[in-house]
């Protein structure tokens, strides 16, 4: 579908403020502040200073929640965001409601207990974030995530992301897109909101899930799925002259990882 910017000068604004640069600044500030977030069911709560609140909003981590005390600004992180900030950016300490620090393995077990498919979901999230995509929940579009090229205030999301489990260790619990009708529904929804369906197939490669180090052995295959439109592929000249080439129903690719130039 291509990039759909929200204003006349938003593309140039995004180019002059790359997301990688914003996140690097956010990571540095968060580390220097010795920031802590408290686990709360399927989220983590974080009290932010005005400066950190601004960087959180710019880097699109967490969602600000309304508090009765207007002098304090609270943010709520998803499980994937919490783990990414703790494990990948090494910028956020996680504590329990009793103010006890949670170590890596304890946090990993907590995440898995709250979401059965957390290892695969997180690997997909990490894969996109590592390539400077802004990742948000895709529940409203029937997906796991949506991916933005830059800040949602500047650009519409390009992809609805569905995470699949592949390989010999697939337990069959994720049956989405396994039948033609599911695929058609997904493509219809994406088409109606001008987005592209991105399927991330995560293979655990037989890894032992007892520690977060297993994520290093995971592999991710990226598949962009597009609807085949017959009118765009029909023969314009039955004599054989001027035939139009068939549009690919599916193209596979591997992002280069360059800033704002992948997928």
TrEMBL record:
Region called Disordered, residue ranges = 238-263
Record key words, sorted: Endonuclease, Hydrolase, Nuclease
Reaction catalyzed: pretRNA = a 3'-half-tRNA molecule with a 5'-OH end + a 5'-half-tRNA molecule with a 2',3'-cyclic phosphate end + an intron with a 2',3'-cyclic phosphate and a 5'-hydroxyl terminus
Name the Gene3D superfamilies for this protein.
3.40.1350.10
Q: Does the keyword Nuclease apply?
A: yes
Quote the InterPro entries the UniProt record gives. tRNA_endonuc-like_dom_sf, tRNA_intron_Endo_cat-like_sf, tRNA_intron_Endonuc_cat-like, tRNA_intron_Endonuc_N, tRNA_splic
Q: Which GO terms describe its molecular function?
A: nucleic acid binding; tRNA-intron lyase activity
Which segments constitute the tRNA intron endonuclease N-terminal domain?
36-108
SUPFAM superfamilies per the UniProt record, alphabetical: tRNA-intron endonuclease catalytic domain-like (SSF53032)
Q: What is its EC number?
A: 4.6.1.16
The segment(s) forming the tRNA intron endonuclease catalytic domain are 118-206
GO annotation, biological process: tRNA-type intron splice site recognition and cleavage
GO CC: one term? Answer: tRNA-intron endonuclease complex
Q: Name one Pfam family in it.
A: tRNA_int_endo
Q: Which family does it belong to?
A: Belongs to the tRNA-intron endonuclease family.
Tell me the protein's name: tRNA-intron lyase
């Amino acid at each position: 579908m291509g990039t759909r910017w929200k204003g006349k000068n938003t593309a140039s604004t995004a180019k002059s403020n790359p997301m990688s640069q914003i996140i690097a600044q956010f990571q540095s500030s968060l580390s220097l502040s010795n920031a802590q977030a408290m686990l709360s069911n399927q989220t983590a709560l974080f009290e932010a200073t005005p400066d950190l609140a601004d960087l959180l909003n710019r880097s699109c981590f967490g969602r600000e929640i309304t508090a009765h005390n207007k002098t304090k600004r609270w943010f709520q992180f998803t499980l994937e965001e919490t783990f990414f900030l703790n494990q990948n950016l090494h910028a956020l300490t996680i504590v329990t409601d009793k103010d006890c620090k949670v170590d890596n393995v304890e946090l990993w077990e907590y995440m898995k207990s709250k979401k059965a498919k957390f290892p695969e979901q997180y690997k997909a999230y990490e894969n996109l974030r590592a390539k400077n995509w802004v990742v948000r929940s895709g529940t409203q579009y029937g997906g796991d995530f949506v991916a933005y090229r830059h800040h949602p205030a500047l650009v519409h999301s390009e992809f609805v992301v569905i995470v699949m489990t592949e390989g010999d260790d697939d337990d069959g619990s994720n049956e989405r897109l396994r039948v033609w009708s599911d695929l058609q529904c997904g493509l219809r929804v994406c088409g109606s909101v001008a987005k592209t369906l991105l399927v991330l197939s995560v293979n655990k490669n037989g890894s032992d899930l007892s520690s977060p180090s297993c994520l290093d052995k995971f592999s991710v295959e990226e598949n962009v799925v597009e609807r085949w439109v017959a009118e765009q592929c029909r023969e314009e000249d039955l004599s054989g002259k001027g035939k139009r080439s068939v549009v690919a129903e599916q193209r596979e690719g591997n992002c280069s990882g360059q800033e704002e130039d992948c997928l």
